[in-house]
Write a structure and sequence with these properties.
Structural class: mainly alpha
Number of strands: 0
Order of helices and strands: HHHHHHHHHHH
Number of helices: 11
Radius of gyration: 20 Å
Largest sheet: none
Oligomer: single chain
Length: 251
């Protein structure tokens, strides 16, 4: 009996060690993705994507949704890079479509407000890359998904960050514009600043507070509030010194 108990104990200990190692690898992949976003380097974004895909193969089935979420997020970042940095619309659209596929798979596996918010963001980003007859449909999908995300995750700062970014590029007729965007971004910042560290059992997303300040600065610029814009860009840079977009606004 003692040998049996020892066996059970060692098995559980080994299992915990494997899980800790797996989460350590996931945190490393998250950090690499953030590095790719900060430095706007394609090779880093592709490397983090490979890491997430490898971990998806290795993780137990009940965590596949989380890896699909990160893969979708990574494709969203790649699409943004190809769209706005590399100016390659074909690769941007391909990345966005792959991101949608991964995110929808994640949503089917496990409901998560951030997943719906990212689906909304990608649909919105596809609008300028699509033919005119697709633009209305994409806009409606984007609006439906962000509304669903806001209802499901009213205390999630990344939901309101993505909502605010979306409103910047949405016509006023459909609820967009600088003022509504600023309200959402301000709410995102408040939620970021009031939330504690992620002490849950799994490594959930933790990106975004520096981006919230960056986009707040963009909206302040649109409103002609240049002093406040400069303060927002400086805040983003203080939070994340590697944020290249915030740095470009301070030159």
């Amino acid at each position: 009996m003692k040998k049996f108990h020892l066996y059970i104990f060692m098995t559980l200990l080994f299992s915990c060690a494997v899980n800790a190692a797996d989460f350590s690898q996931l945190e490393a992949a998250k950090a690499q993705l953030q590095e790719g976003v900060d430095t706007q380097k394609e090779r880093v974004l592709l490397s983090s994507l490979r890491a997430f895909k490898r971990l998806r193969r290795e993780y137990p089935s009940h965590l596949k949704w989380l890896l699909n979420h990160y893969i979708g997020l990574n494709y969203y970042r790649l699409g943004t890079y190809y769209h706005h940095v590399a100016n390659n619309e074909e690769w941007a659209e391909e990345s966005y479509q792959k991101g949608l596929k991964a995110l929808k798979r994640s949503a089917n596996q496990h409901p998560f407000a951030e997943t719906d918010a990212l689906i909304s963001a990608i649909n919105g980003n596809l609008i300028p890359l699509s033919w005119w007859w697709s633009k209305i449909s994409l806009g409606m999908k984007s609006g439906d998904y962000i509304e669903k995300a806001r209802k499901a995750g009213p205390q999630n700062p990344r939901v309101w960050l993505l909502s605010g970014i979306g409103r910047i590029f949405t016509p006023k007729t459909y609820g967009g514009g600088a003022e509504p965007a600023l309200r959402d971004l301000n709410k995102s910042i408040r939620l970021f600043e009031n939330q504690g560290a992620n002490l849950g059992e799994i490594p959930l997303p933790s990106w975004g507070i520096d981006e919230a300040y960056y986009w707040q600065g963009i909206v302040f610029q649109k409103l002609g509030r240049d002093r406040e814009a400069l303060a927002a860009f400086r805040k983003a840079r203080r939070i994340n010194p590697r944020n290249a977009r915030a740095a470009s606004k301070l030159k």
